[in-house]
Design a protein that fits this description.
Strand order of the largest sheet: 2-3-6-5-4-8
Number of helices: 5
Helix content: 25-40%
Shape: elongated
CATH topology of the largest domain: Elongation Factor Tu (Ef-tu), domain 3
Number of domains: 2
CATH class of the largest domain: Mainly Beta
CATH superfamily of the largest domain: AF2212/PG0164-like
Radius of gyration: 18 Å
CATH architecture of the largest domain: Beta Barrel
């Protein structure tokens, strides 16, 4: 379902609104109109996978830099985009070293296991996307300290 849309920004996050017809199609195919909905499509000829979310009463498709190069500097630009429900499961397996660290520190594991799913995913995704093993090790330590209430992590003060 193709359309064109103007890039807007809220805070530091570029996004587009989806036409009502396309939103309704996504709701019908996903079987829901609440919560995060996995979608896929093409933006300016490049395939993407993303999550459609409702924020401040409006459904928004956030346009990150992996979808559109330099997206924060492209506010106001009109883009060619398609969007459809993506039924493929999205499972991000935690980095093995993170699993090992949580198994070593039972207190941190208990806190992690009681976090909302979105917060757990945020931590797992952050660590999983790090480029070097040194960065992984440093950030696993930071994540464990965060779970123990000793340090900030992923822009948050408390778990």
């Amino acid at each position: 379902m193709k359309f064109t849309a103007q890039i807007h920004i809220i805070g530091v996050n570029p996004f587009v609104h989806l036409p009502k017809k396309i939103l309704q199609n996504i709701f019908d195919k996903s079987g829901k109109d609440k919560g995060a909905i996995p979608i896929k499509g093409v933006v300016n000829g490049i395939p993407y996978k993303q999550t459609l979310v409702r924020y401040s009463g409006e459904w928004r498709l956030y346009i990150n830099t992996s979808m559109l190069n330099k997206s924060p500097s492209r506010i106001g630009e009109r883009i060619s985009i398609s969007a459809e429900f993506d039924p493929e499961p999205r499972v991000i397996i935690p980095h093995p070293k993170f699993i090992k660290a949580l198994n070593k520190n039972k207190e941190a594991k208990v806190v992690f296991d009681h976090l909302p799913p979105s917060r757990r995913l945020e931590i797992v995704r952050y660590i999983k996307n790090l480029k070097t093993e040194k960065a992984v090790e440093i950030n696993i330590l930071r994540a464990v300290n965060f779970l123990l209430g000793k340090e900030r992590f992923v822009g948050r003060d408390k778990p």
